[in-house]
Amino acid sequence: MIKLKFLTLISFFLLSLHANAAFDIKARTAILQDYFSGEILYEKEADKPIYPASMTKIMTSIVAFELIKSGDLDMNDKFIVSENAWRLSSAGYSSMFIMVGDEVSVEDLLKGIIIASGNDACVALAEGIAGTEEEFALLMTEKAIEIGMKNTNFANASGINNTENNSTVRDIMIMSKYLIENYPNQYEIFAEKEFTWDRTGGDPITQGNRNPLLYKNFGVDGIKTGYLAVEKYSLASSVYRNGRRLIAVGSGFDTKKDRSRESAKLLTWGLTNFDLIEIAKSNTSIANAEVWLGKKDFIETYVNDDIYKTIPKAKKKYLKTSIIYNGPIEAPIKKDDILGKLKITYKDQLIGEYDLLAFEDVKKLNVFSRLLKSINFLIWGDV
Predict the structure, then answer these.
(1) Can you tell me the distance from the alpha carbon of 69 to that of 183, in angstroms, rounded to the nearest whole number?
(2) Among this protein's residues, is 143 annotated catalytic?
(3) Which one of the listed residues 37, 44, 57, 82 is annotated catalytic?
(4) Domain 46-220 class in CATH
(5) Euclidean distance between the first and final Cα of the chain, in Å?
(6) Is residue 57 annotated as part of the catalytic site, yes or no?
(7) What are phi and psi for residue 214, nearest 5 degrees?
(8) Residue 163 DSSP SS3
């Protein structure tokens, strides 16, 4: 009575994501990820140590966002600017030009960090939250470890001139994905092209966003530039277009022009050479399974995850998605019971496996109905 069910849902071509081995960009280290599938489309020494420079400020922002989410911090809270923070308003540093004794809101400090890349704003925010920048950096590193950044240590909030402030482009990618995924509303600040701060005791200051790709008009909405003499130019960037999002991180660009051109080249390459395929959406019915001796003959099934695969354009053949379960499944069945597997194969090789869950409860038939159905089965076979 128990039979194996194998229902083919989708078939697609799949080619190696590294098919275009000749592609390269002029950076010492780089990585490109498809945000929804998580697939790495390109990497170049992605685990090579780097000084993250102002890309550090992504984590500075994340720590603040976490505290705002928990209710321990508010955008309207104000911090008094110390002399230590003010020193970074001097020539030679990216600044929002705060002054000693200024009371600046968390919202203005965050915009000064994200849009104007203000090192002075980083120190003021860090001191306001943790007392000292050093204590704040411990919070940053703790968060980095929590989200899977395995090769990162933060020594300050700004990323300037500290040999103990180090990371990799892979870790910066992980951090960027975490930011976009967990703080989509706050992430919109990273797309703002200018910030005007009505400073204390002076005329308002307007500064433009330092991310050059925001002005290219092809869908880039973040994230953060960086520069140190020892590291040269770096950029974490993200593009959202036609339902797809890519995240690129590169470091060791020789010039500003290289940083802009090569980062745009990497994002464009990902958009034009690959397609994103939606396999399943979480908590959405994907197929029915047969039920035995239940008040319903079929039960809807679903998976817990959004499942996407990234494949090369115009190369559709070997990707197969199948549902496998032993059935009919005997009632009673409870919602969220594991009923089988959703399997994804490429050239008959398993590349993904997900639990297939019951979408609802199915109660068992009463004794008389079960007996009648069993008799019918014995006489007529499967019904």
Answers:
(1) 9
(2) no
(3) 57
(4) alpha beta
(5) 11
(6) yes
(7) -65, -20
(8) coil
Nearest residue to 278 via CA among 302, 307, 303, 301 = 307
CA distance 204 to 199: 6
Strand partners of residue 292: 330
3-class state of residue 60 by DSSP: helix
Global pTM reads 0.88
Closest among 14, 119, 3 to 60, alpha carbons compared: 119
The answer to whether the peptide bond before residue 307 is cis (omega within 30 degrees of 0) is no
Q: How far is CA 12 from CA 237, 270, 303, 311, 343, in A?
A: 30, 19, 20, 9, 14
Cβ-defined contacts of 369-376 (< 8 Å, 24+): 370/293, 373/293, 374/293
263 φ/ψ angles, rounded to the nearest 5 degrees = -65, -45
- Among candidate residues 61, 95, 117, 263, the one labeled active-site is 117
CATH number of 3-14+280-380: 2.60.410.10
Residue 277 near residue 12, CB atoms below 8 Å:
yes
50 vs 309, more confident? 50
CB 289 within 8 A of CB 264: no
Cα–Cα distance for residue pair 55/5, rounded to 1 Å: 50
Separation of alpha carbons 137 and 157, rounded Å = 6
Cβ(123)–Cβ(84) below 8 Å: yes
- Alpha-carbon gap, residue 88 to 84, rounded angstroms: 8
Q: Which residue has the tokens 């990902």?
A: 270
Residue 2: how many other CB atoms lie within 10 Å: 9
H/E segment holding residue 63: helix 57-70
Pairing between strand 298-302 and 287-292? antiparallel
Write the single-letter amino acid at 161: N
| Active-site annotation holder among 54, 95, 176, 263 | 54
Q: What is the pLDDT of residues 204-220, one digit of tens each?
A: 889 999 999 999 988 99
Delimit the domains of the chain by residue range. Answer: 3-14+280-380, 46-220
- C-beta of residue 250 within 8 angstroms of C-beta of residue 235: yes
**Encoded tokens for 111:** 């915009």
* Residue 22, number of CB atoms within 10 A of its CB: 5
Please report the pLDDT score of residue 378 as a whole number: 55
Q: What is the pLDDT of residues 252-271, one digit of tens each?
A: 999 999 999 999 999 999 99
